[in-house]
Specification:
The complex is a heterodimer of chains A (587) and B (197). By secondary structure, chain A is an all-alpha fold. Chain A contains 23 helices and 4 strands. Chain A has helices at residues 2-12, 14-22, 35-55, 65-74, 79-107, 115-137, 142-157, 161-169, 176-208, 218-224, 228-254, 278-285, 292-308, 310-313, 325-350, 353-373, 390-401, 425-433, 460-476, 488-501, 528-536, 559-572, 574-586, and strands at residues 25-26, 226-227, 407-408, 411-412. The longest helix of chain B has 30 residues, at 25-54. In chain B, 24% of the residues are buried. Classes of the chains: A mainly alpha (587), B alpha+beta (197). Chain A: This is Cytochrome b/b6-like protein.
Chain lengths: 587, 197
C-alpha cells in the first residue's frame, strides 16, 4: 500500500496535495459551530450523486416526466428512497444554509477581510433556493406544476418580467420547453455554478481561516489551535452523520417524497409552495393588486440588499456580538419575520376547510393515478393514465355503441332518451310530465302512445308519490333490496293512486314476470340487470316488445362489455344520487 | 505550534502529538478511525440502495420492456407465396413507464417453402442488422457484414454463425386464412438460437 502510494506520489505529488487539503490550523481549536459549511458540502455532493441516480430513470418531457417519476417512486427498487433522500436533502440544505448564515452573522465573519467570502456564500444560498424551485417542477405532478405556475406567474407580473418569464418557461405557456429548460438549469447550470462558487468560497475560507471567538486573544488562539485533520474533520463528519441519520429517518417516515397526480391544466389544484417558501406565499396575501410588487420584489429585494451590504452596514469597531447590536437585531428581525409568516401560513391552511378538502381529494387522485400508472402510462402523457381507469373504458364503449342515439351530459344523439341522470327522481318526473320531449322519447319513431301528464291532472305531490312507488318497484328488482332508498309511506300512497285513480296501469304492468304490451313492466325497471337486459335485446316481452327500436347488442358486445355499459348508465342517474346521498351521510 | 511541524506533515503520518496541547495518540487515532467509519457509513446511505436501484432492470422477475408475446396477425394466407414478403409486426408494447397500443415491434420475412409458410426474423443472427432480400439471386442478404442466407434461412456466405431465426407462425384455417407470427428476439453472435427475455 505504502509502495503504491510512493509510486503515485512521485508522479503526482498526491501527498503534498492531501497535506495541503487537510493540514490547516484551526485557531482557537476545533468547534461544533464550524460544522455548517462542511455539512452543506456533504449535502451538496450527496444531492449531486442522488440527482445523477434519478436521471438514470427520469425523462424530462411533458409527456414522460410524471410517468417516469411514478416509475421511480413506485416500481424501481429503492427508487422511492433515493428520490426521498433527494427531496428531503433539499430541505436540509435550506435549513443548514440558514444555520450557516446565522453562525456567520453571529461570529461577524462577514466583516473585512472576508466580504467576498460572505458574498459568494449569499450567492450560493440563492442558488440553493433556485435548485429547490426548478426541481419542484420536474415531476410534472399537480403540486409542482401549480406551485411553479405561481412562481413564474409572479415573475410575469413584475414590470419587465414578462420576457424573462417567457424565456424561462420557453414560451407563453407551460409545456415541453418549460421542463427541458428547468431540467437543464437544475442539472447543469445550477450545479456547475454552485460548484464554481463553492471552489471560490473554500479557497477564500482557506485564505482567511475560520473566524474564531472574538473574545480570545491572539496568544490564546495560537495556544488552543488544533489541526483540521483529524480534530475538526471528526466533528464535521459527526455532524454530517447526524444530518444523514435525520434524512434517512425522515425519508423512511414519509416513504420518500410526495408524488401527486399528473399535472392537469384543467384542474383546480390547491397549490402551495414547498414549506421553505411559505413565508413568501403568506406575504403575498397582504399586498393586493399593484401593491403585490412589494411582496414579490421590493421586500425580498430589500432583505437581499441588506444582507449583501452587511459588511458595509456594520461599522462596529469589534467583531464581538455585544458591539454589533443593531446589525444582529436587523438580521434577527428578518428571521423572526420569516418564521412568523411561515407559522401564519401553516396555521391558516390548517383552519382552511376548503384547502384541507382539496388536499384530501389531491391525495386520493394521487393514489389512484399512481395505481393506474403501474399498468403503463399511455404515451400521450401523464393525465392519459386515466385511460387505464375502467370508467374510461366504459365511456369509450358508450361513445362507440350508444352515443349515436343517446346523450350523456349533452353529448350524443337525440334519437333516444338522454341518459344523464337516468332514472333518478327528477328524470322520472320529467318522463311523466313530458314524455315526448327530445330528452325522453320525443326522438324515437314509435313512442307516441304515452300522453303527457299536466299538473292539473296530476299535482306535484301526487306525482312525487307515484315516482316513489316506481322507485320501490325498481328496488324490488335488486338482488338485495334496500328499503332505505325510498320513502315507503309515500310509495304506498303512490301505489294507491296508481291502482285507483291514474291510468298508468292501462299500459304498464307492475308484476314480476309479467309481459308488457309494448311497454316496459315496471317491476325491477332501472336496475343494472334491467339496463343490461335492454342493451341485450329491448324487444323482450317485459321490455318494449314490438315497440322496440334499439338495436340488439346481444352477441355484438361481450357480456362483460354489456355489464360495464349497464353499470355506466346506472351510475349516470340513480347510482350518482346514491353515491352523493351516501357521502352526505358520511359528513 | 512550530512552522516546522506544518511543513513536515506531507511526509510524517501525523503531526507530533505534543504539538497539539499534549493530545494523546489514542484520541487522535480514535478521531481518524471515526472519520473513516462515519464517512463510509454516510457513503453507504446512498451507495447501497443505488446499487440495487441501478441494477434493478436485471433483477429476477423484472420485465422492463415487453410486447408481442402473443401471436400477431400479419396478413391473409393469399398474400404470401414463394417470393419472400416482409411484414411488420404490431403489438401492444410496455416500455418501462409507457404502455403503447399497437406499435411496430419488429418485422419478419414470410416465404412459402414446399407449400408451407415459414417466417424469419429480419434481425441478422450475426450482429443484429436488418436482413434484406435480394430477388436477383434469391437470397437474404445482410447489408452490414455481407452475410447471405438461402430461402430456407441457412447461412451461405459471410460471418453469420447460424441460420436466420425462424419465428413461430400460425395459419388459422378456420379464421379465414389469417396468418399470425409470434415475434421473439434472440441472442446475437452465437451458434445456438437462444431466446432473449
Amino acid at each position: 500500500m505504502n509502495k503504491l502510494l510512493d509510486w503515485l506520489d512521485e508522479r503526482t505529488g498526491i501527498r503534498a496535495l492531501m497535506g495541503e487539503a487537510l493540514d490547516e490550523e484551526v485557531l482557537g481549536g476545533a468547534r461544533v459551530r464550524y460544522v455548517f459549511g462542511s455539512v452543506l458540502t456533504y449535502l451538496f455532493l450527496q444531492q449531486v450523486v442522488l440527482g445523477i441516480l434519478l436521471a438514470t430513470y427520469y425523462s424530462p418531457s411533458a409527456t414522460d416526466a410524471w410517468a417516469s417519476t411514478a416509475y421511480i417512486q413506485d416500481q424501481v427498487a429503492g427508487g422511492w428512497f433515493l428520490r426521498g433522500l433527494h427531496h428531503h436533502g433539499s430541505s436540509a440544505m435550506v435549513v443548514v444554509t440558514l444555520l450557516h448564515l446565522m453562525q456567520v452573522v453571529l461570529a461577524g465573519a462577514y466583516r473585512a477581510p472576508r466580504e467576498v467570502n460572505w458574498w459568494t456564500g449569499l450567492a450560493m444560498g440563492g442558488l440553493v433556493l433556485a435548485f429547490a424551485l426548478t426541481g419542484y417542477l420536474l415531476p410534472w405532478d399537480q403540486k409542482g406544476y401549480w406551485a411553479t405556475q405561481v412562481a413564474t406567474g409572479i415573475m410575469g407580473t413584475v414590470p419587465g418580467g414578462e420576457p424573462m418569464q417567457h424565456a424561462l418557461q420557453g414560451g407563453d405557456q407551460y409545456g415541453n420547453l418549460t421542463i427541458t429548460r428547468f431540467y437543464a438549469l437544475h442539472v447543469f447550470v445550477l450545479p456547475l455554478t454552485l460548484a464554481a462558487l463553492l471552489g471560490a468560497h473554500l479557497y477564500l475560507f482557506r485564505r482567511h481561516g475560520v473566524t474564531p471567538p472574538a473574545k480570545l486573544s491572539e496568544e490564546e488562539l495560537k495556544a488552543k489551535a488544533q489541526p483540521f485533520w483529524p480534530n475538526q474533520l471528526f466533528i464535521d463528519i459527526a455532524a454530517m452523520a447526524v444530518c444523514g441519520a435525520i434524512l434517512v429517518g425522515l425519508t423512511y417516515e414519509t416513504h420518500g417524497a410526495e408524488l401527486f397526480a399528473p399535472a392537469d391544466p384543467a384542474s383546480n389544484f390547491v397549490a402551495r409552495p414547498e414549506w421553505y417558501f411559505l413565508f413568501l406565499f403568506q406575504l403575498l396575501k397582504y399586498f393586493e393588486g399593484p401593491l403585490s410588487i412589494i411582496a414579490t420584489v421590493i421586500l425580498p429585494g430589500a432583505v437581499a440588499t441588506f444582507l449583501f451590504a452587511l459588511p458595509f452596514v456594520d461599522r462596529a469597531e469589534s467583531r464581538q456580538a455585544k458591539k454589533r447590536g443593531p446589525v444582529l437585531a436587523g438580521v434577527g428581525l428578518v428571521m423572526v419575520g420569516v418564521i412568523v409568516l411561515t407559522a401564519l401560513a401553516i396555521v391558516e391552511d390548517a383552519g382552511n376547510e376548503k384547502y384541507q378538502k382539496g388536499l384530501i381529494a389531491a391525495h386520493e387522485d394521487a393514489e389512484k393515478t399512481r395505481e393506474l400508472a403501474k399498468k403503463g402510462v399511455p404515451p400521450a402523457g401523464g393525465i392519459a393514465v386515466w385511460q387505464n381507469d375502467p370508467e374510461f373504458a366504459a365511456m369509450e364503449l358508450f361513445k362507440a355503441n350508444c352515443s349515436t342515439c343517446h346523450a350523456v351530459d349533452g353529448k350524443g344523439g337525440q334519437e333516444a332518451p338522454s341518459l344523464s341522470h337516468f332514472n333518478d327522481r327528477e328524470w322520472l318526473r320529467g318522463a311523466v310530465r313530458e314524455p315526448r320531449s327530445v330528452a325522453y322519447f320525443g326522438g324515437t319513431k314509435g313512442h307516441t302512445d304515452m300522453e303527457a301528464y299536466a299538473k292539473e291532472d296530476l299535482p306535484d305531490e301526487q306525482l312525487d308519490a307515484v315516482i316513489e312507488y316506481m322507485i320501490q318497484l325498481r328496488e324490488q328488482g335488486e338482488a338485495e333490496a334496500d328499503a332505505s332508498t325510498y320513502d315507503a309511506a309515500l310509495a304506498k300512497k303512490g301505489q294507491a293512486l296508481w291502482e285507483d285513480e291514474l291510468e298508468c296501469s292501462g299500459c304498464h304492468e307492475v308484476e314480476k314476470g309479467a309481459d308488457g304490451v309494448g311497454t316496459p313492466v315496471l317491476w325491477g325497471r332501472g336496475t343494472r340487470a334491467w339496463i343490461a337486459d335492454v342493451i341485450r335485446n329491448s324487444g323482450q316481452a317485459h321490455l318494449y316488445g314490438d315497440n322496440a327500436e334499439m338495436p340488439k347488442f346481444e352477441g355484438k358486445l361481450s357480456e362483460a362489455d354489456i355489464d360495464t355499459l349497464a353499470d355506466y348508465v346506472y351510475r349516470q342517474g340513480w347510482g350518482k344520487a346514491d353515491a352523493e346521498a351516501g357521502e352526505g351521510d358520511a359528513h | 505550534m512550530s512552522t516546522d511541524d506544518q511543513d513536515s506533515t506531507p511526509e510524517a503520518k501525523s503531526p507530533t502529538p505534543a504539538a497539539h496541547g499534549g493530545e494523546d495518540e489514542g484520541r487522535r487515532t480514535f478521531m481518524k478511525v471515526g472519520v473513516g467509519a462515519l464517512g463510509a457509513g454516510l457513503a453507504g446511505i446512498v451507495v447501497a440502495p443505488a446499487l440495487k436501484y441501478t441494477l434493478w432492470p436485471l433483477a429476477e422477475g423484472t420485465e422492463v420492456t415487453s410486447g408481442g408475446d402473443d401471436f400477431a396477425i400479419v396478413g391473409q394466407r393469399s398474400e404470401f407465396g414463394p417470393e419472400p414478403v416482409k411484414v411488420d409486426i404490431y403489438a401492444d408494447r410496455v416500455d418501462a413507464w409507457n404502455k403503447t397500443r399497437n406499435v411496430k415491434i419488429g418485422s419478419a420475412w414470410v416465404v412459402e417453402r414446399e407449400g408451407q409458410l415459414v417466417a424469419f426474423s429480419t434481425v441478422c443472427p450475426h450482429l443484429g442488422c436488418a436482413v434484406d432480400y435480394s430477388p436477383e439471386d434469391s437470397k437474404f442478404k445482410c447489408p452490414c457484414h455481407r452475410s447471405a442466407f438461402g430461402l430456407d434461412g441457412a447461412p451461405e456466405e459471410g460471418p453469420a454463425p447460424r441460420s436466420l431465426d425462424a419465428l413461430e407462425l400460425s395459419n388459422d384455417e378456420d379464421g379465414g386464412g389469417l396468418i399470425s407470427i409470434r415475434y421473439e428476439r434472440f441472442k446475437q453472435g452465437t451458434e445456438d438460437k437462444v431466446k432473449i427475455g
